[in-house]
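Re: Re: token formats

Sure, here are both.
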Amino acid sequence: MLLAPSRIPLNVPSYGEEEIAEVLDSLKSGYLTMGKKVRRFEELWAEYIGVPYAVMTNSGSSANLVALTALTLMNGGLRPGDEVITPALTWATTVFPIAQAGLVPVLVDVDKWTYNISPEAVEAAITPRTKAIMPVHLLGNPCDMDALGAIADAHSLELIEDCCEAHGAESQGSRVGSNGLLATFSFFFSHHISTIEGGMVLTGNGELAELCRSLRAFGWVREMKNKEAIATAHPGIDPRFLFAYPGYNFRPMEYQGAFGIHQVGRLEGYIARRRQNAFYWNRELAQYGEWLALQGERTGTRHVWFAYPVRVRVEAPFARAELQNHLESRGIETRPIEAGNMAIQPAMQYIKHRVGGPLTNAQDIHDHAFFIGNHHGIGEAEREYIAASFHEFMRRYQ
């Protein structure tokens, strides 16, 4: 029996004394809802990604809904019933906000190796109702943004990046989140950096940024640059309680901004550890290529390894569950690949949607793949123990 250095969870806290002190400062000040610390985090994150505008929300799911709703309210934007193509293999909060914004999600297949949306499947699914593509940089692996951008340009489609698991990932020299009209991030506890809960919408479009700021806070005009003009047009309403849009209560708390302003500086170090871990496991497990399909890093990209995925080939003499059960028995947590094939989730019966072609790869990954945690808390001893646990299992079949 291998001796684990400790139980190896999917993630460990990413914050330290600086974040705690910053939160205490906010609590002592009495300023608890979004304020200057949230604004500072927005500035830092916009600068890091390389876009002009960032709008923080209380979660990544909310960021998706705010972004999509803003797109339906902007001049020349999307309209109810318009289709948005997105991968079938993703998390629920990519797909659900599309429908919640009055749009129609179109689920398409993914690439078998990257797990990301297939440009060929996108091209085949386009109809006259298609108005946008919403790729997901799944598990920190950048999508083929050159191909998707070319498709979007050729068909006059908007590009909305879901980067919720891809902090710091890069494609052809640019960070994900800087390629489309809109992009979203999540800062949930298990992500590369965290504000415990929290999300962000990024855009280079000033009109969309204004809409997002209003939508996250009830549709209020308080943060809008043209609030005085709106108030002048509605003299019978107290300008302090003037609502321009049907918005949400998705405001972040000031403590989330307090976390964020310190977390940004930690990110590159966290990414370096994740990459070191993933490359080590790839080297150790390469000898099992007949049975295990592993991810690599595509030329011209930086994979930031939100987690470490493994797909058990159908030729293997064991099932996925057997390998997962072995790892779990050794204290190594495992999970399926996100929500798997979203098209077969029972919640989809309540959502108007379309399946844009065969979902062969998405279903194969749903049936045969899983991931283990990969984070800054995994050092040399932990990653060696994980590799040894794989080796121990594989010896049964050699």
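Second one below.
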Amino acid sequence: MNTQIAGSNERVGSTASHHEVARKILLACGILSSVLYIVANDVVAAMSYPGYSRISQPISQLSATFAPSRTILVPLITLYALLIIAFGIGVWQSAQGKRLQRVTGGLLIAGGILGLAALAFPMTQPDLSDKMHNILMGTVTPLLMFVTIGFGAAALGRWFRLYSILTIAVLLLGGVLSGIQIAQIAAGETANWFGLTQRTLTGAWLLWVTVLAIVLLHAQPEQTKS
């Protein structure tokens, strides 16, 4: 009898250990996704687009139908979206009863799916006039980011909540600047810092994802219980 109990405990322990390894791999996908996004857009794609300016031109132009970098970038962005989905699953699995954290994981999964869907609506003109692309990337995606950060902030500790509030402040400021620059472009004027503004916004989001992944990777199982 004791031997049977010991064997059962070993199997349970082994299953739990495998589950924990899988959870950490999924969480690590969050860090990897942020690194991949930067390398894919600002290194690989930008270098394959002659004359492209990271300071003045939007990130979306790198995957536009007219961009020479589209062929190489689309598979990388697809991989990025899949990594975000995997990360969202990891956040969900790390919740252990925390409903707000589960919502955060679900929103991350939705963000990854939205990223895949957005590939079907690339920019087709260099003047930012594509309606569906602008709705997805200029309205839906930023709104989803705000909501995800909000739920993530509420789910975790005080310092992460403060950090998330700071991230939201950066996104709001960047959003205002982007709106002004988009209006300039629509009026036929030149927005010399549009690319830099976009990259600041995107960088704030990518950093938040990375910090969230690190926090959950270092959290002990009992720390994530409600």
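The first helix runs from residue 2 to 47. The helical segments are 2-47, 70-94, 99-118, 131-155, 158-186, 194-218.
- S.
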